[in-house]
Design a protein that fits this description.
By secondary structure, the chain is α/β, with parallel strands linked by helices. The protein contains 5 helices and 11 strands; from the N terminus they run αβββββαβαβαβββαβ. β6, α3 and β7 form a beta-alpha-beta unit.
């Protein structure tokens, strides 16, 4: 256990089997760590590419996993009432898999980015799986960012076979939509991290 504390590791499970993610999930009120990730066309984009919009970062081990694909499709449906928000699904899946994996809308409100050439992303977001059968992939997490990239909601999923708490994420998004994102901070941010 002392090693987990020294390396800032978080204990997760997959069907009850323990595994660890290294790094620290960004905290509510902080500015989200900047990143550069690959698009399906192999170009590179960061948070600024999406402009002054609320962003949901849907981080998944792989869209090849049925639970990840289903949770992503559910998020796309839940976001339809928020045209000002964008869903960014991030996985280490190769960009070439995009058309086969889906989870994308033509209007750009749901996009898929790959971390396959961005080694620092997983550690910066606290989702670097360093043990267990999915070692090397990303731990599932869901973050809501306001228009200035501040974290309003952050959840690292404790049991990796389960979906993140969509209701809590949408509540944070609702709060962001009811105030001036340029001048205020979320009054009651939510953060959930496995102990």
């Amino acid at each position: 256990m002392w090693l987990a504390e020294m390396r800032r590791m978080t204990r997760l499970t997959l069907h009850g089997t323990a595994m660890y993610a290294e790094g620290t999930l960004p905290k509510c009120g902080q500015e989200a760590p900047r990143f550069t990730l690959a698009t399906e066309s192999l170009s590179e984009v960061g948070l600024d590419h999406f402009g002054a919009r609320c962003k949901l970062l849907n981080i998944v081990p792989s869209l090849e996993l049925p639970s990840c694909a289903a949770a992503t499709l559910r998020l796309i449906e839940l976001l339809r009432p928020w045209p000002e928000a964008v869903l960014i699904t991030i996985s280490p899946d190769l960009p070439f898999a995009g058309p086969r994996l889906g989870a994308r809308e033509a209007d750009g409100r749901a996009v898929r980015l790959s971390s396959f050439r961005s080694a620092g992303f997983a550690r910066a977001y606290g989702v670097d799986l360093v043990s267990g059968p999915l070692k090397g992939l990303l731990a599932p997490a869901l973050l809501v960012l306001d228009a200035r990239h501040r974290v309003l909601h952050a959840q690292l999923v404790r049991e990796m076979s389960e979906a993140p708490d969509h209701a809590a994420a949408l509540a944070a998004l609702r709060q962001a939509g009811t105030r001036d994102a340029a001048t205020s901070v979320a009054p009651r941010p939510v953060a959930t991290v496995a102990a």
